[in-house]
Amino acid sequence: MRFxxxxxxxxxxxxxxxxxxxxxxxxxxxxADIATVGAIDKPRIYMNEIKDDVxxxxxxxxxxxxxxxxxxxxxxxxxxKCYRMSIAWARIFPTGEESEPNEAGLQFxxxxxxxxLKYGIEPIVTMNHYETPLYLMDNYNGWSxxxxxxxxxxxxxxxxxxxxxxxxxxxxxxxINSAILNPxxxxxxxxxxLQEVYQASHHQFVASAKAVKYAHDxxxxxxxxxxxxGIFSYPHTCKPEDVMACEKDxxxxxxxxxxxxxxxxxNKAKAFWKKNNINIKMxxxxxxxxxxxxxxxxxxSYYMTMCSSAGIEVKMNLVxxxxxxxxxxxxxxxxxxxTIDPMGLRYALNMLYDRYQLPMMIVENGLGAVDTVExxxxxxxxxxxxxxxxxxxxxxxAINEDGIPLLAYTTWGCIDIIAAGTGEMKKRYGxxxxxxDDAGNGSMKRTPKKSFYWYKxxxxxxxxxLE
Length: 467
Known about the structure:
Its EC number is 3.2.1.86. Belongs to the glycosyl hydrolase 1 family. The protein has helices spanning 15-18, 64-78, 89-92, 103-118, 134-140, 147-163, 183-187, 194-218, 240-262, 267-275, 286-292, 342-356, 382-402, 450-460, and strands at residues 8-12, 82-86, 122-128, 169-173, 223-228, 233-235, 297-301, 306-308, 360-364, 406-412, 432-434, 446-448. Strands 1-2-3-4-5-7-9-10 form an 8-stranded parallel beta barrel, surrounded by 4 helices. Strands 6-8 form a two-stranded parallel sheet. 38% of the residues lie in helices and 12% in strands. It has one domain (8-460): TIM Barrel. By secondary structure, it is an alpha/beta fold. The longest helix is centred in the middle third of the chain and has 25 residues, at 194-218.
């Protein structure tokens, strides 16, 4: 029961949740920069514009922009083999329309990659993680406009050309299936009909395929994957209607990796279009582009499972999320109502491998919780250790007993960051504590938690020491 040699252990963040410096060194505002803070029972509010008297958590976040050397040194002390991060599109092209990139933004990521490589940490980079230049939303209605494909293609060519010697592993869009849950997050559209969501998603599929093909044609050593927002469902009962409800729920979400991993729309997708009066407008060579731009691997996030029911009205209450499902009576939940289901991770790995036969990465997994700093400065997060340990054990079983080809595992929010759904700091995921609160107060001091030392031992033993 071992992990393979060369397995990539690490952690993950997103630029808009950790970098801060939202208007520094030529960066333009992104869709994430108009989001205010929510609460434990309230999702974030997205403003029409940026106002001086409103608090926007992402504007400063945890200031990775100015602390990256300190933070990466801590990652190295944990023994990281990889670090999953994202590039802020608006830091490279402030509006998206510019003909030339912002050199200061490019240099920042050069510096980050150099710092990671200095410690032998492999960057795994997401090209677009829940933020698009705000200008493209305000002036083009985001991904609903085919022109945004061209702007994204320009951006991806620039970063692939610039960083191909430093970054081997890439992903195009973060949790691309979230388009059907939150068009603003994923598609930079404030509101969208079903037709508009699926048309905009087609534009993202084409944009992703173009990035994959460009990488393959120019830098064949690179690996470019897709990232699935890990929604996995069980039938609520063995009643046939519940089983079929589960099948149809999963069809909705797996529509996205189906296209990106296989390179075409299957008959189920076309039947869905017909049933819902969706007419996907394609340009002449789109189908060829999709087939030529199939991804090399599938990455996914995993926090929970849900249940599907044909008849139950009571749904889970997931703050800051549009995911719905029936309650699972066999599972405990986090303080934010996410079910805790370690075995579900093994189930997820098997499901995805059975469908796509591709190598995989788990690029988000973790426990959001309220951490307490003791009088002596210690943060005893045994609950996080227990959560991660149980999930890693199931991952290990999937590799050894099921033959799953897993390349990497990165815990989400390896350092405390702004929560995407609510904007909170108190919903902490990291192994490194950051002194900052929900109102933006604090020294930004970094402090390793108990889980920091535990995860260091996990990595050093290549997953053997999990207690």
